[in-house]
Design goal:
By secondary structure, this protein is α/β, with parallel strands linked by helices. The protein contains 8 helices and 11 strands. It has helices at 4-11, 16-25, 64-72, 88-92, 99-108, 122-128, 183-204, 210-217, and strands at 37-38, 45-56, 78-83, 95-97, 112-119, 132-137, 146-151, 155-157, 160-162, 167-171, 174-178.
Length: 220
């Protein structure tokens, strides 16, 4: 069986659009909400999820547990953090990641971070060239607003269930989550989609009928 590391290398060459289509084909919504966007640098991320679950709190709690997740994350992992039971608008006003976490994540070799919430210290994160996808950019802190209630547990981020070890893929189009148990099937389907689109592109450069090419391959 092909090792996960080899599959991840293949994913680096597959756009999230094709991966999302492949997930649709197996009956899974894998794409996160459109507002969770790349904020820092044009770097694609692919890696297994390490997760942090927050909840709203009215006491000042330093997010030490989130830092511990970064400290103990395997090389190439993607930090995924969200706040349970809040609307997207409310989450957008709370920064779940900033310059210190970005520096720590880069030193520890994480691939990136995905936040169903805000990002702050944007200039610093851009200087670090550390890829961060977030719902918003805001100067607010999570201290006094949320507390960590779970690490490496299933969470919902951007409307999608994320389990520890699921493969997170992010590019300029957005973020896709591939359940680890479906990884090989989804990647195989996505590679076939990419091959079909290459053939379509080649024919479209020669054909005078776009519709005939679309009809031939049954794909748009």
């Amino acid at each position: 069986m092909e090792p996960q590391e080899a599959i991840i290398k293949k994913i680096l060459e597959i756009p999230t659009a094709s991966l999302s289509d492949a997930l649709d084909d197996v009956g899974i919504r894998g794409f996160m909400d459109h507002s969770i966007k790349l904020r820092t640098c044009d770097v694609k991320i692919v890696g297994p999820a390490v997760t942090v679950k927050d909840r709203i709190a009215n006491r000042k709690v330093t997010p030490i547990k989130a830092l511990e997740v970064i400290e103990n994350a395997p090389l190439g992992a993607v930090l995924v953090r969200s706040i349970e039971d809040v609307s997207g608008d409310e989450a957008a006003n709370i920064a779940l990641f900033g310059g210190v976490m970005a520096q720590a994540s880069k030193v520890k070799g994480l691939s990136g971070a995905v936040l169903d919430g805000g990002l702050r210290d944007l200039a610093e994160c851009k200087t670090l060239a550390f890829p961060v996808f977030s719902r918003s950019v805001t100067p607010s802190t999570s201290v006094g607003r949320t507390e960590v209630v779970g690490v490496n547990v299933p969470i919902v981020c951007g409307g999608v269930l994320v389990k520890p070890g699921d493969i997170i893929v992010g590019d300029l189009d957005g973020v896709v989550v591939i359940p680890k148990e479906k990884l090989r099937e989804v990647v195989e389907r996505a590679l076939k989609i990419e091959e079909t689109e290459k053939k379509m592109t080649a024919e479209l450069t020669k054909s005078t009928s776009i519709l005939s090419v679309i009809k031939k391959y049954s794909r748009l």
